[in-house]
Amino acid sequence: MRLLLLSVSILSLAACSFEREDDNADRVATDADRSANSTTENLADSMASNDAEDSTVDTSLDIDDPEERPIMQAQVVLDRQGFGPGVIDGKMGMSTENALRGFQEANSLDITGEMNSETEKKLAQWSDIPATRVVRIPKEWGEIEFASIPDDAAEQAKMDQLGYTSLDEKLAERFHTTTDVLKMLNPGGQPAGATVRSSSGPDKPATNSSSAPKPSPSKSPASSDAAEGSNSLFAVGQMIRVPNIGADRIAPDALIEESWQQTLKSLGVGTEQPSVAKVVVSEKAGTLKGFDAAGKLVALFTVTTGSSNDPLPIGDWKINGVGHNPPFAYNPELFWDVPDDKEKQQLPPGPNGPVGVVWIDLSKEHYGIHGTPEPQTIGRVQSHGCVRLTNWDAARLAEMVSTSTSVVFEA
To answer: Which end of the chain has fewer CB within 10 Å, C or N?
Structure first.
């Protein structure tokens, strides 16, 4: 991993403005990653993936998933291999099709974006990776303050950070999914497959039945905010079923600042990512591809690439630097859809900030590659000119690139 700091203190970006503060698909590699993740040499949180046998793993979390979930299992594998399916939801969609195209290209298969027999055969080498796993929400999450974020920029500027609004939202980002998917995987607030205790009859496995018990929303004990955004279905110490994302090992010798390490932990993103020598963003395909020094495709993410008002600047660019957890200089003059009479504001950093957790600054003035507070909208809505990814994909890309990485924007 290469720690990059922007060499300028203030960047005026076209509708993506912020003030910067210092602050392979092969079995051998996968097995090595699993071995590393099953040891204490991983600085990720206690919910990190543990694919190998490990005597320190909490055996109470061994609850078999009653469903096969083949599409979610493929999404989990693709995500681990660097071909991001966007939000992991167990459904075929645009982002999953793009991920399949990337996987097929990297493995010299017919590029169809479909789960055909040839692709299924190639993915079968990871068939022992389950679609989901059960984790326990860490007790330290009870010390986090969750608060609603107002729509008005002036009110946002008064906040210390634009953090997560609820424990549920934080969980969803940690496992590259949505709160709706987490609720589906945990009917009645219990992991699918867990035994539901009953006083009127025999115990039954938790299912997606509408008759399953619904727990009352709970609030983080540390939060003093009584707003609706602070309510959560899940609670600290609770066992829940989540998508089985991996590639989340944070190496002890990784040269990263503490705040960025915490961000990687919160997004389930590891420090051991492939080095990318060239990034290609396709306006037509709505994808960002990462190639290594040998020209091999090692990563692909679905992205949002500008709009008719702020089109993608076609051409060759360089990376000036990478900003981690950047604040945001809100300038209404740079937004075509905001009245110019609105006041400028300095917004605090956070995953729910306008550029999410990462800003990758480009040599094209006012443009960059960044995260988003709305991962479900990637590839589906227009941006204000910049290239936007989910926070977890943006963080992963930030671990892949350097100032020597070239960037190509193509139609």
So the answer is: C
Residues 282 and 349 both lie in one domain: yes
Which of residues 243, 264, 287 is at a domain's end?
243
What parts of the chain have a pLDDT lower than 70? Answer: 1-40, 51-57, 59, 196-231, 306-308, 331-341, 379-385
Sign of the Cα pseudo-torsion (80, 83, 86, 92, in order): negative
Residues 6+ positions from 43 with CB-CB distance below 8 Å: 250, 251, 252, 254, 261, 265
209/213 Cα distance (integer angstroms): 9
Task: Using alpha carbons, list the distances in angstroms from residue 116 to 102, 180, 225, 285.
Answer: 14, 28, 50, 21
Q: Quote the number of domains for the chain.
A: 2
Q: How far apart are the first and last CA of the chain?
A: 30
Residues present in the chain in total: 411
* Cβ atoms of 385 and 15 closer than 8 Å: yes
How far does Cα 308 stand from its chain's mean position?
27
pLDDT in tens, 57-101: 576 789 999 999 999 999 999 999 999 999 999 999 999 999 999
> How many whole angstroms separate alpha carbon 95 and alpha carbon 88?
9
One-letter identity of residue 128: D
Phi-psi region of 315 (alpha: psi -120 to 50; beta: other; left: phi over 0): left
Please give the model's pTM, rounded to 2 decimal places: 0.83
> Can you read off the two tokens belonging to residue 38?
């099953």
Closest CA to 215 of 243, 241, 234: 234
CA distance 313 to 306: 9
* DSSP element (H, E) containing 204: strand 204-205
Give the pair of three-digit tokens for residue 391: 């926070």
Tally Cβ neighbours within 10 Å of residue 309: 12
d(CA 164, CA 156): 13
Contact present, 14 and 367 (Cβ < 8 Å): yes
Residue 340: CATH number of its domain: 2.40.440.10
| Maximal C-alpha separation, the chain | 68
Angstrom distance (rounded) from CA 398 to CA 268: 14
Q: Is residue 405 part of a domain?
A: yes
Cα–Cα distance between 39 and 97 in angstroms, integer? 34
Token couple for 111: 């590029």
